[in-house]
């Protein structure tokens, strides 16, 4: 029996299982949307536990689908749960959960990539950036097709302290394809070290929590899935605008198998490329013969800070686009010489 004066823990009333909901509403995972359902409530409970203490918390669940994780979030005793679901087929099942938890659930039919999260929660929850994180959490089993663009968008929001981070250092607990999770958490020198590693780790503490085997999902994907927890840092490790950091990091990893100076070169127009690259590498104190995966966060900080100074001295520099210069050259050349002009770019910016 609950102690006097204490509210009893919230538990959902008896409901159809997630599998029964799928059958009831004739739901099928759509391959083109890279949808995979997680039906094992022990696993959904485990995902939700990675978010931390959720009792009386405000939570946004991204893409709840048939509502497996939704049930686990509600059973954790949250104050309010916002569900953002793009696929209308799932709305009736989610409304059933909403009715089972009166006053706790708000359903939004919309795309999380465009949904304005800065107005999603009450203003009284806002914390100063230097304070502890607000009592707000983002949780989601993300479709593979949206996971990378979404985390890049949210990392930009972290950098600018807007969107869901208007409220402070909002924490996120999200699923990713295992390979993407390895990129997010890769250390210096690791084979999965990438643009995604630098962009996430310079803005957040990034923790890989556990791996869910693909066979736990319906339908079974060809890969395993990992749960990753993000807590925004009070101070970013690279204190430059998001767009500048992304441009430098993406350029460096454009040629990940070559020396890092090769990627740095494409930050500059051809006419001054070698001179400016040498100037940048020397001022940043970065060995030009290191591979991109060998560069530490300090290396990237120095590269970004030095590049910023060069952009301040030359206001047109940041607008320079390597690919656009290639396109312009192709237009001026005959079709016969186009093949000689094209350089092989290693398309692995993430």
Automatic annotation (TrEMBL):
Domain Ribosomal RNA adenine methylase transferase N-terminal: 43-234
Subcellular location, record wording: Mitochondrion
One GO process term, biological-process aspect: transcription initiation at mitochondrial promoter
Binding annotation for S-adenosyl-L-methionine: 36, 38, 63, 85, 111, 141
Residue span of region Disordered: 328-350
Keywords: DNA-binding, Methyltransferase, Mitochondrion, RNA-binding, rRNA processing, S-adenosyl-L-methionine, Transcription, Transcription regulation, Transferase, Transit peptide
Catalytic activity, EC: 2.1.1.-
Family the entry assigns: Belongs to the class I-like SAM-binding methyltransferase superfamily. rRNA adenine N(6)-methyltransferase family. KsgA subfamily.
Family matches, as SMART domains: rADc (SM00650)
UniProt name for this protein: rRNA adenine N(6)-methyltransferase
Residue spans of biased composition, Acidic residues class: 339-350
Organism: Chrysolophus pictus (Golden pheasant)
């Amino acid at each position: 029996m609950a102690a006097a004066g204490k509210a009893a823990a919230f538990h959902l009333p008896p409901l159809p299982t997630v599998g029964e909901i799928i059958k009831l509403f004739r739901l099928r995972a759509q391959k083109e949307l890279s949808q995979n359902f997680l039906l094992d409530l022990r696993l959904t409970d485990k995902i939700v536990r990675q978010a931390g203490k959720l009792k009386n918390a405000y939570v946004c669940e991204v893409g709840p689908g048939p509502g497996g994780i939704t049930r686990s979030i509600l059973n954790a005793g949250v104050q309010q749960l916002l569900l953002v679901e793009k696929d209308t087929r799932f709305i009736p099942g989610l409304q059933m959960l909403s009715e089972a938890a009166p006053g706790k659930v708000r359903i939004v039919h919309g795309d999380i990539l465009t949904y304005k999260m800065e107005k999603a929660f009450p203003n009284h929850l806002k914390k100063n950036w230097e304070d502890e994180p607000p009592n707000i959490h983002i949780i989601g089993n993300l479709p593979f097709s949206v996971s990378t663009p979404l985390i890049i968008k949210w990392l930009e929001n972290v950098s600018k302290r807007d969107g869901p981070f208007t409220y402070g250092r909002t924490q996120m607990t999200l699923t990713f394809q295992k390979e993407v999770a390895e990129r997010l958490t890769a250390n210096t020198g690791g084979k999965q070290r990438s643009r995604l590693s630098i962009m996430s780790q310079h803005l957040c503490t990034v923790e890989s929590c556990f791996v869910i085997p693909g066979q736990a999902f319906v339908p079974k994907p060809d890969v395993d899935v990992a749960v990753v927890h993000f807590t925004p840092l009070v101070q970013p490790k690279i204190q430059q605008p998001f767009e500048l950091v992304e441009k430098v990091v993406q350029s460096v990893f454009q040629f990940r198998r070559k020396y890092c100076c090769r990627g740095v070169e494409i930050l500059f127009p051809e006419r001054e490329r070698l001179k400016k690259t040498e100037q940048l590498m020397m001022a940043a104190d970065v060995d030009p013969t290191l591979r991109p995966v060998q560069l530490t966060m300090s290396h990237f900080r120095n590269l970004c800070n030095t590049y910023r100074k060069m952009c301040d001295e030359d206001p047109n520099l940041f607008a320079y686009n390597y690919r656009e210069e290639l396109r312009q050259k192709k237009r001026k050349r005959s079709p016969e010489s186009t093949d000689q002009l094209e350089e092989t770019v290693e398309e692995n910016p993430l």
